[in-house]
Amino acid sequence: MDKQTTPLSGRSVDEITQGRRLRRMRKADWSRRLVQENRLTVDDLIWPIFIIDGENRREAIPAMPGVFRLSVDIAVKEAERAAKLGIPALATFPNVDMALRDQSGSEILNPANLINRATQAIKAAVPEIGVITDVALDPFTSHGHDGILRECIIVNDETVAQVAAAAVLQAAAGSDIIAPSDMMDGRIGAIREALDANGFQHVAIMSYATKFASAFYGPYREAIGTQGLLKGDKKTYYIDHANSDEAVREAEQDVLEGADMLMVKPGLPYLDIIRRLKDEFSLPTFAYQVSGEYAMIRAAAANGWLDGEKAMLESLIAFKRAGCDGILTYFAPEVAEMLKG
């Protein structure tokens, strides 16, 4: 019990606060747990994984310590591990052989391409886990952009037609959620129409509704093999990181076109956007804790500058506090192990 003293103002603390002492419920572990407003559970986690060709391959990604490129057979084993940990879903991203990449990203239209083979294998072995696939063209193009390049311009409508066709192929391979990240105008509506026309009304769409032109994507581009390919930048189709009203308009358009879920990417620098979208649309809302965010925490922890485990958990709780229903994070299996333990 604090000794009652009189501050310099002449009034006691109880007089100043009118008896409202907000530390009362913070005094013990049990009381802090009793009033905790947000909790992180394994049900909040989506695990992004990188896929490569070959067999029994696990390649380290230097910029993302603890993250690997996985051949399909190894990805299946990791999907089995994820399911045992209770992780609801995986998000898969391919590192496509350079010989298969071209100006239009035509390999995305191959029903037996790397990403579709991974989906088929995972769903065959672990049918209870969700598979989320991205239909952006950047892993398939020789220039690293998310769309078809014509005379140095990313052409919107031709890209949308190709993305919609690819979405149908991904659904046919067993994808549960199509998550287009290319930020082309009209892509959500075109994908919804294509899926429905081909009997895939049950396949959901998680829109990368607000994908910002960010400096935090570097390690990801290394992971999918586009970092050295990209000429120029993606500012003609990603959102300016200074704009929030524009982000809301983008999300609103995707909702009108049929998005089932919204995603904000990157995550931590855009908690205000998460909150705005959740308040505005009351739709399931997700954040992608991107490669740069992951790498910063890992690097700082490796240098002893912060407690990596605590920083990881704090960052994930921040997403829940901002309104997220789930988080795409490379920390997913580590967090799931901790929660299970």
Automatic annotation (TrEMBL):
<dbReference type="GO" id="GO:0008270">
    <property type="term" value="F:zinc ion binding"/>
</dbReference>
<comment type="similarity">
    <text>Belongs to the ALAD family.</text>
</comment>
<feature type="binding site">
    <location>
        <position position="250"/>
    </location>
    <ligand>
        <name>Mg(2+)</name>
    </ligand>
</feature>
<dbReference type="InterPro" id="IPR001731">
    <property type="entry name" value="ALAD"/>
</dbReference>
<dbReference type="GO" id="GO:0005829">
    <property type="term" value="C:cytosol"/>
</dbReference>
<keyword id="KW-0479">Metal-binding</keyword>
<protein>
    <recommendedName>
        <fullName>Delta-aminolevulinic acid dehydratase</fullName>
        <ecNumber>4.2.1.24</ecNumber>
    </recommendedName>
</protein>
<feature type="active site" description="Schiff-base intermediate with substrate">
    <location>
        <position position="211"/>
    </location>
</feature>
<feature type="active site" description="Schiff-base intermediate with substrate">
    <location>
        <position position="265"/>
    </location>
</feature>
<dbReference type="InterPro" id="IPR030656">
    <property type="entry name" value="ALAD_AS"/>
</dbReference>
<dbReference type="Pfam" id="PF00490">
    <property type="entry name" value="ALAD"/>
</dbReference>
<dbReference type="GO" id="GO:0006783">
    <property type="term" value="P:heme biosynthetic process"/>
</dbReference>
<keyword id="KW-0627">Porphyrin biosynthesis</keyword>
<keyword id="KW-0456">Lyase</keyword>
<dbReference type="InterPro" id="IPR013785">
    <property type="entry name" value="Aldolase_TIM"/>
</dbReference>
<dbReference type="GO" id="GO:0004655">
    <property type="term" value="F:porphobilinogen synthase activity"/>
</dbReference>
<comment type="pathway">
    <text>Porphyrin-containing compound metabolism; protoporphyrin-IX biosynthesis; coproporphyrinogen-III from 5-aminolevulinate: step 1/4.</text>
</comment>
<keyword id="KW-0460">Magnesium</keyword>
<comment type="subunit">
    <text>Homooctamer.</text>
</comment>
<keyword id="KW-0350">Heme biosynthesis</keyword>
